[in-house]
Structure formats: C-alpha cells, structure tokens
Design a protein that fits this description.
Radius of gyration: 15 Å
Number of strands: 10
Oligomer: single chain
CATH topology: Rossmann fold
Number of domains: 1
Structural class: alpha/beta
CATH class: Alpha Beta
Largest sheet: 5 strands, mixed
Number of helices: 5
Shape: globular
CATH superfamily: Class I glutamine amidotransferase (GATase) domain
CATH architecture: 3-Layer(aba) Sandwich
C-alpha cells in the first residue's frame, strides 16, 4: 500500500515487520494512518507482524512521544521484548487457529503483548508471553511467518478476508 486509494481498494492489508517508528512516521507523512484505521474499523482484515503488531496496538510501553501508531487493537505491547538483533531465534509454536501441528516462528527483535482487552483472543504464547492475538478480523503476530515455508498462518489470514465484515 502506497496510496490512500490503494488502502481503500484493498480487501485485506498486511503491515510487515521493520522499524515501527519509521513505518508509523511514513504512514503519517503519506496520509495512510486514517485510511488504515477506517479499514480496520470497517471490519476488514488487517495483519500486523512484529513492527506491524506494534503499530496496531492501542498502547505501546515506553513509546516515543512522537511515535505515530494506529491504535486499532485492544492490546498493549512491549517492543524488543526478546532482546537485541543478535538474540533473534526460531521456535515451534502451538497456534490455536491452524491444524496439523506447531507453526515455525521466527522472532527478530520481537515485541510481546503484555495485556489484552476483553474482545481479544490469545492465539499463541512462548514461555508464558503472548506472541499472537486476534480481535475480530485483526491479527497481530510478534513473529515473521513469511520467513518460513509454512503457509498456514497466511492461509488463516486469507480465510478472514473471505468472511463477511463482523
């Protein structure tokens, strides 16, 4: 998504990993924050992975005062909760919305969800920390499913796009 028109024409959106402050500032600069908020408010699917999860959160612990974010999901997140880049890792996770065994998860300077609101379902945890959650058709992941050959998480997200607005 690069333009307001592309956001408005999309059935579903993905906000990828990267640097959440930079992504948020670019979304603000190009006028994309409000269109993406409207997308989510309309019940259309939105997936945020890593930095995308941070941007979706209602609250970001210790966020910079000027960090733009969407605030569309009733979660609180902590950035870089697993440490620095050199402490990145892979693991298998039980993910409640996919069948056929654990999902391979790649964590890179990953955030965690520290609090969830009443309408949020926890989908996966690692060592007692929440790393995946869903609220309606909003899906937030602390890990990067795109870095594995396992398509089940993405297939689940695509299935959300096939459902009517909630």
């Amino acid at each position: 998504m690069r333009t307001v028109e592309e956001v408005e024409a999309s059935d579903a959106l993905i906000i990828p990993g990267g640097e959440s402050t930079t992504i948020g500032k670019l979304m603000d600069r190009y006028g994309l924050l409000e269109p993406v908020k409207r997308h989510a408010a309309a019940g259309r699917p939105l997936l945020g992975t890593c930095a995308g999860m941070i941007l979706m959160a209602r609250q970001i612990e210790a966020a910079a005062r000027d960090q733009p974010h969407l605030g569309v999901m009733d979660i609180t997140v902590r950035r870089n909760a697993f440490g620095r880049q050199v402490e990145s890792f892979e693991t298998d996770l039980e993910f409640s919305r996919v069948d056929s065994g654990p999902v391979r998860a790649v964590f890179i300077r990953a955030p965690v969800i520290t609090q969830v609101g009443p309408g949020v379902e926890v989908l996966a945890s690692y060592e007692g920390r929440i790393v995946a959650a869903q609220q309606g058709r909003l899906l937030a992941l602390a890990f990067h499913p795109e870095l594995t050959d396992d398509l089940r998480v993405h297939q689940y997200f695509v299935s959300l796009a096939g459902q009517g607005a909630s």
